[in-house]
Design brief:
Helices cover 61% and strands 2% of the residues. The chain is mostly helical. The structure holds zinc ion.
């Protein structure tokens, strides 16, 4: 990563001239703005242990709170790591749960706050994490597996809504798509089935998940998102009271990550472009397919060559399409010329007819006279 981002250091210090979309040349200072990664990778980038938040200094036994804790500081963390590397045992190294990465790749990137770059991850934190792994399992414990299955089975079919005709308890592997399908019907499934506070918690969490996926945000939608978050935290105690949570706290890293959502949307923009779903999809094209094309021994060079060839094919394909399109344009031009020619001929024909008629009229007049 350090090698990859090396050119950004000088560019960030001295600036580079770039042509903007309006055609004007501006002196710009590029920065790293957002970094899409899942929790283990985010912790690796933040140089913190995986039982810590990569964005803030919350202690693991306070993850269940809805409070915002002081954010990690780019400069302070860099200095602590550097001093730890020199064997000075600085304050904060243990408290902040840091790892022995003494010279992280982001250390000297100008104008960058690497912790603010770490974007929320809707797929792992919301769909797979808070919703599927936690909320659904608490509700299943509350209502009973069989009863919940019966609720799913009893739902009438409706266009655009998936009908889980066998319930959900037999599904062993859930994809992101299935989790989203379940979210669409889940409130209807649990409404009226148990304590209203649990239903409120489910509704609040589903609201939050839907707001997080908005493609446009205003202060109002962010406020509604915050309200949904607060409402969930007020109602969540029902899962402890009924013993469905299994523990007497909510110190769950993914639940804590929700605290940073509105802040991230304000600084990075809507989260639809920062979802790990895109990179998960690319993992299939760029890693799985490439690996399958190799003989599975010493596969990195083979995968790289395969990817290079795929890229060449795509580029050649684009070129041929462009050529084909250019041919079409010529053909279009030819067609247009043909049409113009035909129109000209029609005009000429009609003029000939007029001349012929005039000749005939003249002949008739001549016969009449004679
Ligand atoms: Zn945090």
């Amino acid at each position: 990563m350090a090698q990859l981002l090396q050119p950004l250091i000088e560019a960030g210090q001295c600036g580079v001239l770039m042509t903007c979309v309006d055609g004007k040349i501006r002196h710009v200072y590029p920065i790293v703005a957002a970094y899409i990664a899942d929790h283990p990778e985010q912790c690796l980038i933040a140089c913190c242990k995986e039982n810590r938040c990569p964005r803030c200094l919350v202690h693991p036994n306070q993850w269940g709170n809805r409070l915002v804790y002081p954010l990690r500081s780019h400069i302070e963390t860099r200095d602590i790591l550097e001093r730890q590397g020199q064997g000075k045992n600085p304050d904060g190294y243990e408290d902040q749960g840091l790892r022995p990465v003494y010279s992280p790749f982001w250390a000297h990137l100008p104008h960058t706050d690497i912790f603010a770059c770490l974007s929320p991850d809707i797929l792992h934190q919301l769909h797979k994490g808070v919703f599927k792994d936690h909320l659904v399992s608490w509700c299943t414990a509350l209502i009973g597996e069989k009863e919940l299955d019966n609720h799913f089975k009893a739902m009438s079919a409706y266009p655009d809504l998936r009908h889980f005709s066998k319930g959900i308890s037999l599904v062993s592997q859930w994809t992101g798509k299935e989790q989203k399908e379940m979210q669409k019907v889940f409130l209807g499934i649990v409404a009226g089935a148990f304590d209203p506070r649990a239903v409120t918690a489910v509704r609040a969490m589903l609201d939050f998940i839907y707001y997080a996926q908005y493609q446009t945000h205003t202060e109002t939608t962010l406020q509604l998102m915050q309200t949904a978050h607060d409402m969930f935290h007020e109602a969540k105690v029902i899962f402890i009271e009924t013993g469905t949570r299994g523990q007497d706290h909510f110190n769950i890293p993914k639940l804590h990550s929700l605290v940073h959502y509105t802040q991230s949307i304000r600084s990075l923009g809507c989260l639809d472009g920062l979802n790990t779903e895109s990179s998960e999809r690319l993992h299939i094209d760029f890693a799985k397919k490439a690996y399958r094309a190799s003989n599975r021994r010493d596969y990195y060079p083979q995968m790289t060559l395969w990817l290079q060839r795929q890229e060449s094919v795509v580029r050649k394909d684009d070129y041929l399409e462009w050529l084909g399109h250019r041919g079409d344009t010529d053909k279009d031009d030819d067609d247009e010329e043909t049409l113009i020619d035909e129109a000209d001929n029609e005009i000429e024909d009609s003029e000939n007819v007029r001349v012929e008629l005039t000749d005939r009229e003249n002949t008739r007049s001549f016969h009449a006279l004679s």
